[in-house]
User: Fold these one by one.
Assistant:
Number 1:
Amino acid sequence: MTDKWKKTALFVIDMQKDFILPDGPLLVDGGAAIIPNVIKAVEVARERGMLVVWVVREHDKLGRDVELFRRHLYSEKGGPTVKGHEGAELVEGLEIHEGDYKLVKTRFSAFFATHLHSTLLGAGIDSLVIVVFDAVALNYPSVSVIVDATAAKTPEVHDANIFDMENIGVATPTLEEWCNANC
């Protein structure tokens, strides 16, 4: 394992049932299709000795910690990605291992109102994979998004997001390119 990989973290973001399964209330089109690539990216990251960061949403059942525009989805019965409910679980094939790091977020950004930045600095991490604009804004010198291990609400939104990321200096390799890089 090179020092490069010790300073690199792979982020797995929102790979929860409520985002990925066909009946999920927050379904991301294309989410299910990327599961094999996400599994492979996690395997490669672990082989390289990289920190794997699992970023998940876990909300209060009444939605008190949710963005205002999503609060209508919550009631006494619960809502999407409620802590302890099935929809907040990772999809089949993905699991957190000892040594991985789980971060619960309540907003789009994993950096907003969390201790993620200080945790990464404390772990000596300076390169991030599958994290986007906030990492660039916080001056991480190396940010990559594996294009075929990410998805958005629609393919068109995904393409636009990748275009925007490339324009701010984010590397956008395919899974194969990333796996073959600096091995």
Number 2:
Amino acid sequence: MNSKLLERGAADDDIISSLTDDVLLHILSFVPTTEDAVRTRALSRRWRHVWLCLPALAFSDIGKIPTSGLDELINAALAHSHDTLTIRIQHPRHKLHANAWLQQAAERVHGNISLRLDDYSPITIEDRQWHWHGFGNVVLDLPCGDDTRTAAMSFRSFLQDDKMLTLKLPVAPAVNSSLTELELFNIRLDGGGLSDLLSLCGQLRRLLLHVFWGVDGPDLKITSKLLEELDLDYIDGIVRLEVSCPKLRLLRIKRLFQTDSKLVGSFCTPSLEEIH
């Protein structure tokens, strides 16, 4: 083992641990889950931090107790740059960190951030206390500013009863110039309407709104010079849909034109190639 390898690993490291970072990351790329990649920390000192350099990481607390160390793993991952980050959480204790994780991830993840919140049924007395104090609700601040790097974001909520996931728009004038894809599933918008969201995210090419709450009013207007794909499914309380997107190629509409509704649609989409 040469001096360079001695500097990077202990003398008791095995031959695999003496390989370059790129080779070790290539090996870890075949590990099926992030959880399995994290377990490689136990192999040697050389492996302790290799998993943190993986381009794609996915974390979940489904089927785990809140004390399983998930918070520490996500915090450690957010100290490094990644291409893709997926977080799926259900316990209220972890949901308390959701917004902080999102803000950090927006500065570290260059590709896609996917955040999914599942409903949680209280089991223990402590769980019921979390539930009674309303910790099932989550508010996310839309990342904006010069430090935001993420190109695609997906927020999905499967909360039930009176619990809600809210996406809050910034009060001060701000823009998100990096975001090109946005998915919102079962989410309420706060701090502005859809027109404000589109104004903040002027580079959007793809927009998905499924079970969406908090539009500007009975008239839903979607105006974008760059939007190429629009997917709408059950948007509450609208009677008129107006779409003006000169570059729109793909349009999907579902559960908007109900049989008991008099909703009217107006479309200015000269580049449209496909409609569902």
Number 3:
Amino acid sequence: MASISPISQSQRFLVNTRLAVLKKPQTQFFSVPIQGIPQSSWLSARKSKMLVVVATTTAEKAKKRYPGEAKGFVEEMRFVAMKLHTRDQAREGEKETEGQPLAKWEPTVEGYLKFLVDSKLVYDTLENIVEKAPFPEYAEFRNTGLERSESLAKDLEWFRQQGYAIPEPSTPGVSYARYLEELAEKDPQAFICHFYNTYFAHTAGGRMIGRKVSEMILNNKELEFYKWDGDVKQLLQNVKDKLNKVTESWTREEKNHCLEETEKSFKYSGDILRLILS
């Protein structure tokens, strides 16, 4: 028949430390005198504390996941941008509607020309920046197929041929172009935010606005501004892949800084959009 041996002090300590690992780490605090405890028991206690630290750190990281993070940083940017839309613009929108909804707009050709001229200045600026590439990662976004400057130049020439006077760039476009030039030299994370929102928004809401305005004042003429060579979805996917690649090396702080710039991007682009109604 097996005998029951008394449990030694060191054995009790090993049992206690194993139980401590199973319990919630932040509420388990205990101390025992090290003197007289075998080295194996002391090492076991140290290992148990290390397990507690690892478990706590892992739990903290799990709590800090950002919306869209698992799919890449572009999805994070998209999520933040969609929140800044109004409900009538997007299901995820959270902003209150300001001014008249698109269906009640009363655009003019003169106002639309101001919008196109200022838009061209912004796209000229973006394309010049990626061409000069003050930061090497900008060079990734050359010749993406999303460029709009050349298309806008063709549209403005068409208006000129119809007898319309082409205005000079106005304050909204000039201010935005200047701001982009400043950002590009010193703040690549913020610049990438504007790059993403300007090009990607134009392929979505921008096209919808273009169709509506064309119906109202241009007899349904489709401008070059709203045409792309090739499959625009594939062009967007190619740029998404490049953006995710460029931002992989960013710290969480740098990514957050980029996301925080989204609202400013919307403000500048909104000021230019409102020129259509001027």
